C-alpha cells in the first residue's frame, strides 16, 4: 500500500485513496508524485511545521534543487497572492517589471532566469504578507528561506551548467539582464523584511555589482535603444534610493553616485514619485556618508557639538536645499509612494538635524509632521514598506524620546501626544523588538500624559485600556498614571485615532522606570542595527523662564507652541512645518561638506 505525498511527509497512516481521508480532513491537495527511494536515516520534524508548509504549497519531497525547474514548487494560489501583493505594494516603489510579462512566464517552461525572478517575488511578498497562515514567526522565516534557497539554486544553475560544459566563451559573454538584477534586489528586500541587515546588504551589493558590470550607471549605455533600455535606468535609480536609505539606517557605505540624468523618459505617477525620492536622497554626498560612518554624525553629535561655523552653515544650507526639494503632500503619485516620500522627507530632515542639533523645535516638528502624515494616508500604504519604514519611524520616535529632559519640558512641545501616536503606529507594523525599546525610552515622558488633552474618541477606551490605567501598544504596556476611574463611573482613554489593534496579542508587564533593565516577560532586545539607542543625542534643552528655551549650538530662543496639539482629521492633507530659519535661499550648494 502506497502513501500519498502529504501523508508520507507528515508520517501518518494513509488509506491510499485519491483523495485520501487524511488529505480531505486536513484540506490538502492529495498527490502521489513521490518516487520511492532506498531507505536511509529518518529525519525528524514537527508535524505542525510540516503541515504548515504543505498548506502553503511548498515542496517537501526533496531538499535538493530539482533537476528540472517547475512552477509547481509553490502552489498556484500562493503564487497568485504573492504576485498580486508584489505589484500592488512594491511595483510603485520599484517600477521595473511589467506585470503582464511576469504572468506570461507562468504559461511557459521556466528558464533559470524567469524561475529565479518569479520565486524571488514570492519570497519577498511572503516576508511581508501579514495574513499568511503561519503558526509562528519562525515558521514564516523558515518558509521564506526555503524559497530563497530555491532562488539561489536557480540563479547559479545556468552558470554551473556553463562551467561544467567547458563553454568558456559563452560564460564570458553571458549577458546581464534587468531580470537578473531585480532578482538580487528582491532577495535584498526579502532579508530586509526578515530583519537580517547583513544578508540584505550582501544581496543589495550583488544587485549593484551586476548593474555596474552591465554599465547601466553610464549614460552611453542608453544611446543604442533608449526606449527598450529604459527599465535599466529605472532599476539604477531604485538601487540608488535603496542603497542610500539602507546605508544611513545600518551604517554601511554607499557605492552609487548620481551619474545619470535625473528624470527617466517614462511618464506616469509612479515615475513622478521615484523622481521625488531621488531628489530627496540627492542631498547626501560621499563626504556626508564618510562623516556619518566615521561617527561624527552617528555617535552622539549633541554630546560633543561641532562648533565649527563652517560646519553649522553647511548643515543649514543642506537643510535649505532639502526643504527646497521637499515633496508637496499633494504630489501626483500612488498612495504607497506618497507615504514613503512624505515620511522619508521627515526622516532625512532628522538626519540633517543630528549633524548640528541646534534646538529641540526641529525634532518636535518632525514628530508632529509624521503623525499628521500617518493620519492622512491609509495604514496599508505604510505597512507596505515593511522594515525600512518601521526603522524610519522608530528613528524619529527614539530621537524625540531622548532629547527632552523632563515630561514638563516635553509637554510644551506636544511630545507626549506625538510619542503616544508614534507608538500606536509602530504597533501596527512588524516591529520586532523595536517597539519595546522605544517604549522604554519614552516611558519617563508618557506617564505624565494628561488624557483629556488627547482624547477625541472615548468609545475606544474599552478596547485599548484596562481598569489599571495601562495603555496597550500592541503587546507592550505602559502605565499612564491615570489609574482606574471606577469611583467616578467614567473611563478616559488616551488612545486616539490609530485604534483597531488586536487585543489577543501577548500582554507584558509595565516596563520598569530604570531604562537599563529589561521588563519582566520581555526578551532582552537583540543588538539593534545602526542607528541604535546609544547613538541618539542626550537631552540638550534647558528651560529659561516662561517663554523661551535655549538649546544646542545656536542658542536660539523659541516661543512656546500653541497648547492646541490636536491631530488633523484623516480627510485633511498633513501640514508640514518648516522652521523659519530654514526657508530656502539661493541655489543648492555645489559641494556639500567642502572641508
Concise summary:
The chain is an all-alpha fold and 595 residues long. It contains 22 helices and 4 strands.
What does the model show?
- The chain contains 22 helices and 4 strands.
- It is an all-alpha fold.
- The chain has 3 domains: 1-44, Zn(2)-C6 fungal-type DNA-binding domain (CD2-Gal4), CATH 4.10.240; 62-250, no CATH class; 310-582, no CATH class.
- Helix 18 (386-403) packs parallel to helix 21.
- The N and C termini lie far apart (80 Å).
Average pLDDT over all residues? 68
Low-confidence segments, given as residue ranges, are 61-66, 296-305, 448-470, 477-595
Structural class computed from helices and strand pairing:
mainly alpha
Shape: globular
Spatial strand sequence of the major β-sheet:
1-2
- Rg over CA atoms, rounded to whole Å, is 26 Å
State the helix count.
22
Order of helices and strands: HHHHHHHHHHHHHHHHHHHHHHEEEE
User: Quick one: biggest sheet?
Assistant: 2 strands, antiparallel
What percent of residues are in strands?
A: under 5%
The share of residues in helices is 40-55%
| Strand runs, count | 4
The figure for the number of domains is 3
In angstroms, what separates the terminal alpha carbons?
A: 80 Å
Question: Mind sketching the topology for me?
Answer:
Elements: H1 5-10, H2 21-26, H3 47-56, H4 76-89, H5 99-105, H6 112-126, H7 137-165, H8 168-172, H9 178-193, H10 197-214, H11 230-250, H12 269-281, H13 286-294, H14 309-324, H15 335-355, H16 361-376, H17 379-383, H18 386-403, H19 407-411, H20 415-426, H21 434-442, H22 461-464, E1 470-473, E2 476-479, E3 541-544, E4 548-551
Antiparallel strand pairs: 1-2, 3-4
Helix pairs in contact: 4-6, 6-7, 6-9, 7-9, 9-10, 9-11, 10-11, 11-12, 12-15, 14-15, 15-16, 15-18, 16-18, 16-20, 18-20, 18-21, 20-21
